[in-house]
Amino acid sequence: DAKTTQPTSMDCAEGRAANLPCNHSTISGNEYVYWYRQIHSQGPQYIIHGLKNNETNEMASLIITEDRKSSTLILPHATLRDTAVYYCIVRVRWGEKLTFGTGTRLTIIP
Amino acid sequence: EAGVVQSPRYKIIEKKQPVAFWCNPISGHNTLYWYRQNLGQGPELLIRYENEEAVDDSQLPKDRFSAERLKGVDSTLKIQPAELGDSAVYLCASSSSGEQYFGPGTRLTVT
Fold this sequence. Notes:
By secondary structure, chain A is an all-beta fold.
């Protein structure tokens, strides 16, 4: 699996959009971009995934650049409950192991 | 729908003692994973099961770690004997050709 690079930490004001970047410059053509998050004392939670088109679900939006070397996870209206570590992962398909990095620690400020 | 259940949530043992963790996956999920998460790090896969078959155990330290999923449903991960470096959170996850769902984990402290 390709490796990813994320900022160690970020802050965002409550109610604002949180934009979490991820670099994956060595991503292969058949690898998807996945995002998980881990709230304190809980297991990781799936958020969203995409291949090359932008994706949106009830939790977040995923913007993938045209060259697929980077992506941004957008939480449109951040709440205090969105404080967590966010992991960007690239891998081929469902069922494969998840290779986590150290993620981005997002803190939502009241 | 019940999520992935793990027990115990916390365990404190002395080094050289054995310890076991139990996981009950989401009903119908044929793939089960055990991950280990050290402090400040992301989870790392220890073993993956497809039904009762271990299909990826390359990262499982086989000298002291063992796992089983006898009937293809719940699973047990065992450490014997435990070492100080085994202190971590042990996470179980399950999936059914979709995203992985994680349990809350078992926090192991070896003293």
